[in-house]
């Protein structure tokens, strides 16, 4: 495959590293965004989630300690988005964007749906 891809990547995450490897093995040189260093804006995050067909609750890392500290279990979508912007560690990863679509690549093999 040729083309372009953007991956919202955390190099410490095994699933994210695997998805990145799958993209590269498909012959694509991805644009890598280390979202912990360069988090998306609110508009960018809302667009990513909408394009992936995800509600904020489906894309938040509930096992992070900050999730519990902020009491997000019963929060509405806007509060979840605000928390993900302020604490990008809460954003589930990796999110991959190509011309074919946007996917939360968990498990990593889901990246094939947009390659």
Task: Please explain how this structure is put together.
The mean pLDDT is about 95. A hairpin with a 2-residue loop joins strand 3 and strand 4 (about 100-105). Helices cover about 35% and strands about 15% of the residues. It has a 4-stranded mixed sheet, sandwiched between helices. It is of the alpha+beta class. It is built from 4 helices and 4 strands.
In the sheet with the most strands, the strands line up as: 2-1-3-4
> What Rg do the Cα atoms give?
14 Å
Query: Can you count the helices?
Result: 4
Broad structural category = alpha+beta
- The SSE string, one letter per element, is EHEHHHEE
Described by strand count, sense and barrel closure, the largest sheet is: 4 strands, mixed
Low-pLDDT segments, ≥5 res: none
Q: What percent of the residues sit in helical stretches (DSSP H or I)? A: 25-40%
End-to-end separation in angstroms reads 7 Å
C-alpha geometry: globular
Percent of residues in β-strands: 5-15%
Compute the average pLDDT: 96
Overall strand count: 4
Task: Give me the secondary-structure topology.
Blueprint: E1 5-9, H1 14-25, E2 31-34, H2 42-52, H3 65-69, H4 77-86, E3 95-98, E4 101-104
Parallel strand pairs: 1-2
Antiparallel strand pairs: 1-3, 3-4
Explain briefly what this protein structure is:
The protein is α+β, with helices and mostly antiparallel strands. It has helices spanning 14-25, 42-52, 65-69, 77-86; strands at 5-9, 31-34, 95-98, 101-104.
